[in-house]
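Q: Fold this one first, please.
A: Sequence and structure below.
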Amino acid sequence: MTLLAACAPGKNDTDDDSSTSSSTSSASTADPTESTDATDPTDATESTESTDATGTTEPPSTTTSNPTEPPPETTGTTGSEADEFGFICVELAKAESEESDPFAGTDTIYLTLELDPCLNEFYQTHPEYVDGPEGTAVLEEWRGRLCSETVAPGLVSCEVDHFETNMGEGVPTQFTVAYKVLDAAQIDGRTLLWGPAPLAELAGCEPKARLTTPFGVQGFPENGGPLWSAQSWENPVGLVKSEANGCIKVHVAKQ
C-alpha cells in the first residue's frame, strides 16, 4: 500500500526503478551496630527514585529541584521528552571531481532510504502508522521539524514539501522525503534529516535505513530533470535517533 502525505507535484519520477516509499535503587537500612558516627536521622534512609521520566506522575522531589530555576535544556531534539520518533542524518558535499557547485539552481531535493528489516516489521505490525490517523499526525508534526531541529547547526535551509511511502510485496520498502530548498547556495557541506521513523524503544529493535542507489539523493531545478545525484557515499546505513551524528555522507556530482 502506498501513503502519500502532504503531497505536492513530485519530480521523483526520474528516479531509478527501485520503489519509493528502568533502575530502581534498592533501599538500604543503616545497621546501628555498624557505625557510631551517624547521628543525623536523615542518614538512615535513602530516597528511591524512578529513572523512567515518563513512567510516573509523581512530582519531582523538592530537595532536588528549585522552582526558580529554568527547566533543563533538552539535548538532541526540540520535541517533547516523550518523543517516540526520530531521524537519520544525511550530509551532502560536492564531489572532488566537481569543479563548480553542482547544487546551484537546486529547487527540490528528494531523499529516499530503504528500510531495514526492523523498520519493515514495525510498519507491518503497526499499520496505524502507515495509513491511520496516528501516522498522519506523526508526519504532520515532523513536516515542521525536519528542517528546524537544533541538533545540527548546519542544516540545509529547507521546508518539507511532502512524504512518499512505498510498501509492496516482494520489494524493499522505501520512504522518501521531498525538501523545498530555500537557499541553494548553502547546501554544500550541510545536513538533511530523513524521517520520521520510530526510535529503538518504540520499534523494539535497532531501526535502520540505508542509501542503496545514486538516485536515492537527487536535486531538481524548478523545472526539468535532475541537476545532480549521489556519486558516492560513506556510512550508507543510518540508525534512527535524536542526535545528528553517525550521518550518511553523500558526495554529489552533476548529472
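Q: Good. Now the second chain.
A: Here it is, same layout.
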Amino acid sequence: MIESIERLTELLLSGNQDEAWNIVWKKRQQGFDTFYIFQQFISVSMAQIGMMWEEDEISVADEHLATTTCDYVLSRYQLCIRQEVIKNEKKGLFLYIENEQHFLGLKMISILFEEHGWQTKLLGADSPLLHATHAVEQWKPDLVGISFSLTHHIEKANEYIEGLQKTKHQPLILVGGRVVSNYKFPLVQTNQVRFIAQLEELKELFHYQSIRGIKVVDY
C-alpha cells in the first residue's frame, strides 16, 4: 500500500492524469470502497505533497499541478460512480469559507454524499457567507457542509455557522477541514451543528443520523 501511495504521489506531481486515474480506479476494482480510497489513499498522497511543499522540496507550481491532476481524478471517479447510484430526495450543499482556496477535501465529501444518493451542489472555495445563505434559502438543502483549513479562520467559520443557523430553512450543518481534524475545535456541537474530523465519521451519519425524521440512507 505504501508503494501505491508513493506511486500516486509521483503521478500527481508529474501531472500524469491518466496513470493517476488508473491507479485510483484499480483500488476500486480490487474492492476498496470510496471511504478507503479517499481517506487512506488519495488524502494521504495529497498530505505528502503538502508536506513536501512546506519543506520546500517542491515549488508552488508543482503543488498546483498535483492539485489540478487530483481534481481531474476525482471528477472522473465521480462520473463513474454515478452509474451505480440509487438516488433519493435529500440534498447537500458544500462550500469553503472566504479566503480558503483548497477544495479537494470538500469535493471528496460531496462525492461521498452523491454516492449515497444525495443531490449535491459544490459551491467550492472562497464562498462568501451572503452567497451561501442565499443558496440555502433558494435550494433548501437538508445539509450544508462547510470547511476551512487555517486556524486564523476559526472566528470566520463561527460567523458562517451562526449565519447558516439563522436561515429559515435551518439545515443540518457539517463542519470539517484540517483545523477540525488536527485541533480541539472551540465551538460547541449542537443538534444542528456537527463536526467531522475524519471521512469515516460520515459512515455513522449515513447509517444512523436522521434529518427531519428521514434516514440519511434508506438502504
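Q: Anything worth noting on the second one?
A: The chain is about 55% helix and 15% strand.
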